[in-house]
Amino acid sequence: MILRRPRTLLWQLGLGLMLVQAAAILIPAWYAYGRFQKFHERQTLRMLERATPLLVDRYTTHLGENGDLNQLQKLVQADGEMTGERITVMLPNGRVIADSMNDPVTMENHRDRPEVAEALLHGTGSSRRTSATIHEPSAYFAMRIGDASSPKAIVRTSFTLVAADAEAAQL
Q1: What is the pTM of this model?
Q2: Do 97 and 69 form a contact (C-beta atoms < 8 A)?
Q3: CA–CA separation, 51 vs 126, rounded Å?
Q4: How many CA atoms lie within 13 A of 86 on its CB side?
Q5: What is the DSSP annotation of the chain?
Q6: Is-contact 87 104, C-beta < 8 A?
Q7: What is the pLDDT of residues 133-154, one digit of tens each?
Q8: Under a CB-based contact definition with an 8 Å cutoff, are residues 77 and 97 in contact?
Q9: Dist. CA 158–CA 149, nearest whole Å
């Protein structure tokens, strides 16, 4: 049996002090990281809030009886590539008619998405959730085209928070 020398008081105090110092560094760093994440999410949502009205104006002429949905799809894809945002245009019943990342024919109905339901009721809506399509946490902003009694469509923009985090990491 090997006998160990008892640890000295100085060694015990040093270990305790190191643990206190580590906690004093890690707790504020964890708090600051969380605050930065929330700030970055709010900034991402504000970016979407500023861009969406411009897209609504751009897409309104392609909706209605004389609208060309093929032309709208091309325009949405080009705008999505240019902005880096995901753009989805849907009818009030939730049927997707244009999307910058996917074929709208293959997409499921979006009427029950929180931001879409809110936009139908109040004109605009937003949410932060994991995308059912791309399976990444995303920020969403939706805007109704037309008034509440007779909406024509909803334009929704989104940006993955994974991409937003990557951009923030470059700062």
Answers
A1: 0.78
A2: yes
A3: 13
A4: 21
A5: -PPPPPPPHHHHHHHHHHHHHHHHHHHHHHHHHHHHHHHHHHHHHHHHHHHHHHHHHHHGGGSSTT--HHHHHHHHHHHHHHHS-EEEEE-TTS-EEEESSS-GGGSPP-TTSHHHHHHHHHSEEEEEEE-TTT-SEEEEEEEEES-TTS--EEEEEEEEHHHHHHHHHT-
A6: no
A7: 788 889 999 999 999 899 999 9
A8: no
A9: 26
The whole-angstrom separation of Cα 82 and Cα 46 is: 18
- For the record, the structure tokens of 122 come out as 């109040």
Q: By C-alpha distance, which of 57, 91, 92, 93 is closest to 75?
A: 57
Give the position of tokens 């080009």: 78
Question: β-pairing, 153-160 with 137-145?
Answer: antiparallel
Tokens of 76: 């949405």
Token pair listed for 73? 């799809």
**HSE toward the beta carbon, residue 101, CA cutoff 13 A:** 14
pLDDT in tens, 52-111: 999 999 998 888 777 788 899 999 999 999 998 999 999 999 999 999 999 999 999 999
* Whether the Cβ atoms of residue 120 and residue 104 lie closer than 8 Å to each other: no
